[in-house]
Amino acid sequence: MITNDRNGAAVKWNIGSWALRTPFGRAFPVHEIRRDFPILSTKINGRPLIWFDNAATTQKPACVIDRLDHFYRHENSNVHRGAHTLASGATDIFEGARDIIGKFLHAASPQEIIFVRGTTEAVNLVARTFGKRQIGEGDEILVSHLEHHANIVPWQLLCVETGAVLRVIPVDDTGQIDLCAYGKLLGGRTKLVSLAHVSNALGTIVPVREMTAMAHCAGAKVLIDGAQAVSHLAVDVTDLDCDFYAFSGHKIFGPTGIGALYVKREILKELPPYQGGGNMIADVTFEKTSYQDPPGRFEAGTASIADAAGLGAALEYIMAIGMDRISAYEHALTEYAAEAMREVPGLTMIGTADKKTAILSFILQGFSNEEVGRAFDKAGIAVRTGHHCAQPILRRFGLEGTVRPSLAFYNTKEEIDEMIRVLKRLRKNRLHYPFFMVY
Q1: What are phi and psi of 2, to 5 degrees?
Q2: Burial status of residue 237 (CB atoms within 10 A of its CB: 0-12, 13-18, 19 or more)
Q3: pLDDT one-digit tens code per residue, 295-314
Q4: Averaged pLDDT for residues 273-287
């Protein structure tokens, strides 16, 4: 007989060994935490890897990697309705991960959580269900200038199909939402406001709680894209009072190909199915199909079961550390980095809002973004260059791209110091050798 003790598994797979043996002191145990991430011991071009590409994807702790391995070695089965032990165990694991996500987001019930491939699929799901049912010709959808393409394009497609109108909330010169302009845009035709919680290009923390309240006063629903927020900020969807909240697992130290969409229960029960197929049905005849209750009706086909388990492990790992501690450490690290970067001649920070997370977009006078990225890579530093799938906000600042270091709680001041050394060395070499190029 094979048993599956979810509580026992939580201790074995979901909490880093340092957390089990070391009580939190005043200092954040970053060097202990780093030992939980195998990839951080990798060498790039003979140099220790410095992973400053966290806004693109985060690295995975050993407990997540081990959880995936253990599932495929010992627990692999499809879920729901299987008349055997492994199927029952896999179902418990899958639904247990839903429970963990619900607790992480402070949802009223795990049944308000839909598994998706990631934030992009979540936004499209809302567009194709709530959007098609509730938004019609002449109705308005509001997005901000800060949005990732994945929170723009689905609404453009819906507008073409329905005759709805997409309107854009402007930002000020620091990259923060203009709340006065937002208030003027809200009106009787506003059906949905869809906002990034945190800008992936600038790091701006959007005042989504206040904006949600304003939208509700106008009779509109609110979707929050939390892809860049969940790894940096404590998220409480009940306190935010949002109607939809989406995030991707790989942005919060979990696997790729898995994410979650929170939907308020009263809205969820009114939404039509998004896709048709196995697992989302209650009964099928050639004349009629009836569907499962939510959230099952939105999860057609075989689920990413192992990835759901891995995401659950990642979230329990984060909760064991404590999001408040993570946020405080990252804030101090970001302030340290920003201060050091201001000392680099010719460097201009892009996005200077008072409230922002650990994203440090910049341009360097006299260098293309790609040159800077190549110089960083030679030193083992991984950053993102380009438009970051957020072209409208960069064009708001007259740019087509930036260099984007982005930090996580396993990064250190020493790594930031190395980044600054590379930048200063670049400037020095260009000063002495005007035609110097970095390849």
Answers
A1: -100, 130
A2: buried
A3: 999 999 999 999 999 999 99
A4: 90
Angle between helices 305-321 and 85-105 (to 10 degrees): 40
Residue 142 to residue 370: CA distance in whole angstroms: 34
Six-digit token pair at 341? 């970067």
Who's near 8: CB < 8 A, 6+ residues apart? none
Dihedral Cα 142, 147, 151, 152, nearest 10 deg = 70
Q: Tell me the C-alpha distance between 223 and 261, whole Å.
A: 10
Of 63, 159, 242, 389, catalytic: 389
- Report the amino acid identity of residue 183: G
The verdict on whether 63 is a catalytic residue reads no
| Alpha-carbon separation of residue 143 from 39, 220, 221, 393 (angstroms) | 37, 13, 12, 12
> Regarding beta strands 289-291 and 281-284, do their DSSP bridges make them parallel or antiparallel, or are they unpaired?
antiparallel
pLDDT in tens, 223-270: 999 999 999 999 999 999 999 999 999 999 999 999 999 999 999 999
With beta carbons less than 8 A apart as the criterion, state whether 427 and 344 touch.
Answer: yes
